[in-house]
Design a protein that fits this description.
Blueprint lengths: L9 H10 L12 H10 L3 H18 L1 H17 L3 H17 L3 H18 L2 H17 L3 H17 L3 H17 L3 H16 L7 H20 L3 H18 L5 H14 L3 H13 L6 H17 L3 H18 L4 H17 L3 H18 L2 H17 L3 H60 L3 H16 L3 H21 L4 E3 H19 L4 E7 L9 E3 L4 H12 L5 E11 L2 E8 L4 H10 L1 H5 L3 H13 L9 E7 L6 E11 L7
């Protein structure tokens, strides 16, 4: 027997649906009765706003209708008394509800508004949670690449501000991504890891934690079901049911009851199956007509198996009515119901009616080219004609059954091949990333060897020696300490691939200070300007990526100037990139080139550091198009055309750093 669920892989689709409940930003297990009483007593709209917000956050998981009522009032109050924090929660709750009602477009609109507010005024952890939840909506819309991007964005934020609870939610989402692509072993591994991480948080758990636990065990149930381990599958689904009943999370409970019932059918436990199908039908808190339709159909099949034909037909009719109310093109479920009707009438020896229903079942199956269902209906036809001793037609349909089974096998093989290709591409991308990282590391070492021009080190030490011989002990000690700090930083950072932008800037300041005071004897001035949007303490950049360009400006542009000025500016180009500008008022590239041809000292100084750094940037940006991430601009006098210096624009990728 083939239990009815939903269109093709609807069971898996359902798992994604419940996976994407967004929940409130901080859904807690609350005393609902107390809050409802408090709300009834409150008259002041601002006081009601707080109670409405708390109750809506709870009912989002437990009572959608009540949540909608509360959000309606909440929205009205916000129209008169705007408050960005409550507005954020309103959009988050509304997105959650629309998502549960399968209104994915509306859910996305609400959630994008919530993210806009969060990115302006929310904390890093709030943003990370928002990205995890929005990835769920993307998965519902089968925008898997977009979902992956948002999970990666969340992961980047959590590397700077670790949160085990949110990391577990990312792991859960990744488990469902692998379930979607058929990588069941990896899906089990990730879902079990997420389960362990959440349960280790210890009490009290948030309501949203319990939701994720129901999601995890639903996913495990689906994986076990796909692997034909029906007993484990039922146990997982029962865990979900028990948790939902205990916590009052009833908005998707009919789906969970349905999963348990289908599992018991596979285990040939008709009584238990009927019990859970009835529960799926009787529950009033769940508004899902699709789940109820599937429960009617499956319960009807159980009655058919028991010979309770009239009751079975009534249940089939109710199921079909609900399916058609949702969609007139749900041909898969229509086909199954028609096939079951055909078998029922055949049992009652109403051959013409049986043939009519089998024919409709075949027609529906052909509309969707479902070869497995086509094979099943052809088998019904073969049995039908064999009972009539029409062996010619029985043989013909048996042959069609075999042909459709072969086509189904081909279809399954193609799907598996596609899944393997996806896995291969993912592994290939992972290996390419690791290879690029190793190449970048090697170039980093080369760049570090090319840094700290010997002229700079010699002049700095020579100046310190002059202070000592001139008995200027205070100045000598001051500059020697600064020089030692710079050398220590250089050695320390040589073991790191990534440092914070704050440390990179500190290194530049020390380097420029020593140049200003020791090498140029105050003939060099410098400025370092950081855009207000940049949080330099939490943004990571490749180690000592800017110093080669600063050194190049000094060596080629300012070395002969008596009033040298170098400016280093940092701007947030986009969420993944920092634009660094190194600008000098030097002699310009053309005159520097002429001096290199005439002066052996200039000729011998090669810009190895900048060349290697450009290769590093190319790899770190993961660019395959040989795109340039460094642009050099000659600055000239607008009237005379005379060289006025050089401007170098460097596109630096923002890297992940671990905040300790």
């Amino acid at each position: 027997m083939r239990a009815i669920s939903v269109n093709r892989d609807i069971a898996l689709f359902f798992i994604f649906i419940i996976a994407m409940f967004l929940g409130s930003p901080v859904p807690q297990v609350v005393n609902v009765s107390e809050l409802e009483y408090k709300l009834r007593q409150q008259k002041d709209p601002l006081q009601r706003l707080i109670s409405l917000d708390k109750l809506a956050g709870h009912y989002t998981y437990t009572n959608i209708r009540r949540a909608q009522e509360l959000l309606g009032e909440l929205c009205g109050i916000l129209g008169e008394y705007p408050n960005p924090d409550f507005k954020l929660n309103y959009h988050w709750y509304a997105a959650t509800i629309d998502n549960q009602l399968y209104n994915f477009t509306a859910a996305e609109e609400h959630f994008l508004k919530a993210i806009e507010i969060l990115e302006e005024r929310g904390t890093i952890k709030q943003q990370a949670e928002a990205y995890i939840d929005y990835a769920g909506i993307c998965m519902n819309q089968e925008k898997m690449e977009k979902a992956t991007r948002y999970l990666e964005k969340s992961g980047k934020l959590l590397k700077s501000f670790p949160d085990d609870r949110l990391l577990a939610r990312i792991t859960c989402r990744e488990g469902f991504m692998n379930l979607h692509y058929g990588n069941y072993s990896r899906a089990i591994e990730l879902l079990l890891a997420a389960d362990k991480s959440i349960t280790m948080q210890g009490p009290p758990l948030e309501l949203k934690d319990y939701y994720f636990l129901t999601l995890i065990h639903s996913g495990l149930g689906k994986v076990y079901e796909r692997n034909d381990d029906r007993e484990k599958s039922v146990r997982s689904y029962l865990k979900v049911v028990n948790m939902c009943e205990t916590m009052g999370m009833r908005t998707r409970l009919s789906w969970h009851y349905l999963n348990v019932g289908i599992g018991y059918i596979a285990l040939n436990d008709q009584e238990k199956a009927e019990e859970y199908f009835r529960k799926a039908i009787d529950i009033t808190d769940d508004i899902s007509e699709y789940a109820r339709a599937s429960a009617f159909a499956n319960l009807g099949y159980c009655y058919y198996e028991k010979g309770r034909y009239q009751e079975a037909l009534e249940l089939f009719d109710r199921a079909e009515h609900l399916y058609k109310h949702k969609s007139e093109e749900d041909y898969y479920n229509f086909s199954i119901i028609e096939a079951w009707r055909g078998r029922l009438y055949q049992e009652q020896e109403e051959q013409e009616r049986a043939l009519s229903h089998f024919s409709r079942a075949l027609e529906y199956a052909r509309l969707i080219q479902d070869y497995k269902q086509l094979a099943g209906v052809c088998k019904d036809f073969a049995n039908y004609y064999a009972n009539l001793e029409d062996f010619e037609n029985a043989y013909r349909y048996q042959c069609l059954h075999d042909q459709y089974l072969d086509k189904n096998s081909e279809q399954v093989d193609k799907r598996k091949q596609l899944e393997l290709e996806v896995k291969y591409e993912a592994e290939k991308k992972k290996q390419e990333t690791e290879l690029l990282r190793l190449q970048a590391t090697r170039l980093q070492l080369k760049a570090l060897r090319a840094q700290m021009n010997p002229h700079f080190m010699y002049n700095a030490l020579n100046s310190i020696q002059n202070y000592i011989t001139s008995n200027e002990i205070t100045s000598a000690a001051k500059y020697l300490a600064k020089f030692a700090q710079l050398m220590r930083q250089s050695l320390e950072y040589s073991d790191l691939e990534i440092i914070s932008l704050e440390k990179e800037i500190e290194f530049l300041e020390d380097y420029l200070f020593i140049n200003e005071k020791l090498r140029f004897e105050d003939r060099l001035k410098y400025e370092i300007i950081i855009d207000e949007e940049i949080e330099e303490d939490i943004l990571g950049v490749p180690t000592m990526i800017i110093q080669p360009y600063v050194e190049n400006a000094i060596e080629h542009g300012l070395r002969t100037k008596r009033d040298g000025l170098i400016r280093v500016l940092f701007f947030l180009y986009d969420e993944d990139t920092i634009l660094c500008v190194v600008e000098d008022n030097g002699i310009g590239r053309e005159k520097a080139r002429q001096l290199r041809m005439q002066d052996p000292q200039y000729h011998n100084h090669r810009s190895r550091g900048t060349n290697i750094t450009e290769k590093r940037l190319e790899i770190l940006h993961n660019s395959k198009d040989k795109e340039s991430f460094v642009h050099t601009i000659d600055l000239t006098d607008e009237e005379t055309g005379e060289a006025r210096g050089t401007r170098v624009e460097i596109m630096i990728p923002i890297m992940e750093i671990q905040i300790k």
